[in-house]
Amino acid sequence: MAIALSIAGSDSGGGAGVQADLKTFSALGVYGASVLTAITAQNTRVVARVEGVSADMIRAQIDAVMDDLDIGAVKIGMLGSVSAMLAVAKALAGCAVPIVLDPVMVAKSGDRLIEDEAVAALKERLLPLATVLTPNLPEAARLLAGAVVTDAAGTLAQAEALRALGPQWVLMKGGHAGGEECIDRLIGPEYRDFAARRIATCNTHGTGCSLSSAIAAGLAQGMSVPEATARAHGWLHGAILAADGLRVGSGHGPVHHFYQWWTA
């Protein structure tokens, strides 16, 4: 059994964070373990409160899981604080398994999920550990202290600038760009575009978490980064296409992680 570990915050609404990661792992045939970094009071409309888990407890969770479970890949999501980032970086230093880093900074509701001073720690301590970095376009711009770009040339330039900070691969997610197609660009030892027709829906809560955890699931199963990304991209497109049928909440609802298994 392939096992993947999610290190991320809890979404009380169930659509993003650790909950989305575990659903994604299960949907793709991978056993999921988890380390909580923060607890959010959250629904489909707002993040009402965020409370971080202590650095010692984060480290204890990672050590406990790694000591017993044969982890095949790690997905890192929301960390929020410098202390949480340092705890994760120290715990994973020298880790031999692939790491997918989703630099979660802002929720779909617009609420900030990362402290400003934590951006430097994210760049210096975690980006060098990443096998795959999966920023959306605003996140990429914030990491580079630059402007948001949407054209192909600008996206590729920012991806290479991020790769220079340590990640082996960078997947620039195109959800914030315009056009009828959403294009995710994978830049690394090779270059791939993954395009899908844009879907008119407001139910996209947890898409970033789910995409990165789907890539981690593929890596845990022995896929290459391009193979894992291709499957994750196609699977997520189906999950978004089926999202309106769930009718969960009155804001940005979740995607349908189990659309291949049951219909709403």
Describe the protein in words:
- With 264 residues, this protein is α/β, with parallel strands linked by helices.
- It has one domain: Ribokinase (UDP-N-acetylmuramoyl-L-alanine:D-glutamate ligase, 3-Layer(aba) Sandwich).
- 36% of the residues lie in helices and 20% in strands.
- The protein is built from eight helices and nine strands.
- The protein has helices spanning 17-27, 55-68, 82-92, 118-126, 137-144, 152-163, 207-220, 225-241; strands at 3-11, 31-42, 47-52, 73-76, 99-101, 132-133, 169-172, 181-187, 191-197.
- It has a nine-stranded mixed β-sheet, sandwiched between helices.
- Strand 4 (73-76), helix 3 and strand 5 form a beta-alpha-beta unit.
- Helix 2 (55-68) packs parallel to helix 3 (82-92).
- The longest helix has 17 residues, at 225-241.
- The relative contact order is 0.17.
- The mean pLDDT is 93.
